Amino acid sequence: MQKSDELAEFLKTLNGNKKKMTQQEYRTIKGQALHGDVIAASRGMQKLMRRRGN
Q: What is the per-residue pLDDT for 1?
């Protein structure tokens, strides 16, 4: 159950940042998370936010 909780928490964070990224970036990161690589998706989102200064 921990993985699904981790995924749900990440998706909440991702949706909160949706307006700060392009549609393609959002889809790519969401796809990574949904396919089980939440850690990489989280790193990718953090990198995007850092580059954009958000």
A: 52
Q: Domain boundaries in the chain?
A: 2-52
Q: Residues 8-23, buried b or exposed e (16+ Cβ, 10 A)? A: eebbeebeebeeebee
Token pair for residue 42? Answer: 């989280």
The tokens of 24 are what? 């393609």
> For the chain, which ranges sit under pLDDT 50?
none
Taking CA atoms, 48 is separated from 3, 4, 39, 53, in Å, by: 23, 24, 14, 9
Reported as a single tens digit per residue, the pLDDT across 34-48 is: 999 999 999 999 999
